[in-house]
Design goal:
The complex is a heterodimer. Chain A contains 14 helices and nine strands. By secondary structure, chain A is of the alpha+beta class. Chain A has a five-stranded mixed sheet, with helices on one face. In chain A, α7 packs across α8. The N and C termini of chain A lie far apart (about 60 Å). Chain B has a domain of about 80 residues: Phosphatidylinositol 3-kinase Catalytic Subunit, Chain A, domain 1 (Ubiquitin-like (UB roll)), CATH 3.10.20. Helix content of chain B is about 20%, strand content about 20%. A four-stranded mixed sheet of chain B has the order 2-1-4-3. The radius of gyration of chain B is 14 Å and the shape is globular. Classes of the chains: A alpha+beta, B alpha+beta. Chains A and B meet through α5 and α12 of A and α1 and α3 of B.
């Protein structure tokens, strides 16, 4: 551990994204539209933990408070249970080739027609806490093979961890979160990683700290990618169809069908298949990345491939104790490639893939 | 649900949960999981939840955990107001959008994924 490491941990925690929230025109019931609400959102947080001010701000301009508030970016409902920074890297950074094109992230706020086939329900903050606790246990189990470190927390520690996350309080959060760190790299069973591709549910693999049983060499990020079978990710990049789909567009779904369609298939069907041939086969992710120029982002940046994977994990992981690696193809920047074709898509002027 | 299957027929059959199969045949699974793989899930009851007659099922790897929850609830013939909590290895409740194959890769034991279920949040 070098002198600067603690600073890195703090810098990662302080990572923020400037957001402009705008009320959906569908929900506007006052004469004057409210001005947008700007906010610096911590990467390491979840939207429901920071948006109560947004809700309060807009609620005077709308009468349609029938439903849970939800957020949308370019027709895509934002999954509240994905860390804000991961959402940004996946939906914004990936689609601008990894560079920051716009100074702000423009997000539309909705108060009706909650897309509950796409988003999990989030009735209250307690739902976020339950979700967070379970992901944390999942990560802890991957890391140690048990969750003793989690179970050994006192009630006060458990509350401090949650309050630290909720209030974005570095000292409070890390005073407890550091207890989940193994005493040495040797104590790790595996590194909890999640790969995020095209806004799909995460891909998880068991990644060891060392390269081989008797090795004392930590695996690098490059080694990590080489340990992930190509099959694990191939179906998630748009242009590679894993079925006998010949690349034709799926038939559009009418609103009534969409309501009944089950979440995953709904998403699957709405993806435009691009024309690149799925002919090449690779034995692992690294080969595929090199051949096709696939890029990655961790907490918004691209650490060198020769970085130690476990070191990156300890400093760049999210509060749920997973490290999220966003993968994207910079030659396929079309944001419509994961457009969800929302029920109300015909009302969105910027939505041009309305197939109906 | 039924219209759903209609819709997806030509592009995929992911939503169709495979019918229960005898667990005696071929429990061996490849290490590599593709969306077409089938994996063995072993349902263990706890608390006041009733046991299943058949406890092992071969399910498609690309199912979401929500699909698994729905499958188990229908096997148990639960009403919508009856609660059911599912845990992996008596440790955690996966998010409904997590993919079964990803959970299998990280948490399988002896080529099967053990899912504990209870009418109460037993390991919450």
């Amino acid at each position: 551990m070098s002198f600067f490491d603690e600073d890195i941990k703090k810098s990662v925690w302080e990572g923020k994204i400037p957001i402009i929230f705008t009320l959906s025109p569908d929900d506007l019931t006052s004469h004057l539209p409210p001005s947008p609400y700007t906010f610096m959102a911590p990467r390491n947080s979840y939207f429901p933990l920071i948006t109560s001010v947004v809700k309060e701000y807009f609620s005077s301009s709308t009468l349609v408070l029938l439903d849970e508030m939800w957020l949308e970016y370019r027709g895509i409902p934002l999954k509240w249970h994905v860390p804000i920074g991961v959402l940004y890297d996946t939906l914004v950074l990936s689609k601008s080739g990894g560079v920051i094109e716009q100074p702000y992230w423009n997000i539309v706020v909705h108060f009706q027609s909650y897309p509950d086939k796409i988003l999990l329900k989030c009735p209250n903050i307690e739902a976020v806490r339950t979700y967070y606790k379970n992901v944390l246990k999942e990560a802890t189990f991957i890391k140690q093979g048990d969750i003793n470190k989690f179970n050994n927390l006192t009630i006060n520690q458990s509350n401090d961890l949650w309050d630290g996350l909720k209030n974005h309080d570095y000292d409070k959060f890390w005073s407890v979160n550091k207890k989940f760190a193994p005493n040495s790299y040797k104590e790790y069973k595996n590194i909890p990683i999640r790969l995020i591709i095209n806004y799909k549910p995460p891909v998880q693999e068991l990644i060891p700290v060392y390269d081989g049983e008797n090795s004392t060499t930590e695996i690098t990020l490059e080694n990590l990618f080489s340990k992930i079978p190509y099959d694990s990710v191939s179906s998630l990049f748009n242009y590679i169809s894993n079925s006998n789909n010949t690349g034709n567009l799926s038939p559009p779904l009418s609103p009534s069908d969409r309501n009944s369609a089950e979440v995953d298939n709904n998403i699957e069907n709405s993806i435009n298949q691009s024309s690149l041939p799925p002919s090449a086969e690779y034995s692992n992710l690294l080969q595929f990345m090199k051949a096709c120029g696939i890029k990655y982002r961790i907490q918004g940046i691209e650490p060198p491939l020769d970085s130690s994977a476990v070191w990156l994990y300890e400093y760049f992981s999210h509060p749920d104790n997973f490290i999220y690696i966003t993968l994207f193809d910079p030659s396929n920047l079309d944001n419509n490639s994961f457009n969800y074709n929302l029920n109300n898509s015909n009302k969105n002027s910027n939505n041009n893939n309305n197939n109906e | 649900m039924d219209e759903n299957k209609e819709i997806n027929k030509e592009t995929n059959t992911d939503s169709t949960i495979t019918s229960p199969q005898p667990s005696t045949e071929q429990p061996q699974q490849p290490v590599k999981i593709t969306p077409d793989s089938k994996i063995v899930v072993y349902f263990k009851n706890a608390g006041g939840a009733q046991a299943l007659k058949q406890k092992k099922f071969k399910l498609q790897a690309n199912l979401s955990f929500q699909n698994v929850i729905d499958k188990l609830r229908s096997q148990l013939k639960l009403k919508s107001n009856e609660s059911l909590f599912l845990f992996i290895n008596q440790v955690f409740q996966p998010s409904p959008d997590e993919i079964l194959g990803e959970l299998y890769k990280c948490f399988c034991h002896n080529d099967q994924l053990i899912i504990n279920y209870s009418d109460l949040p037993a390991w919450g």
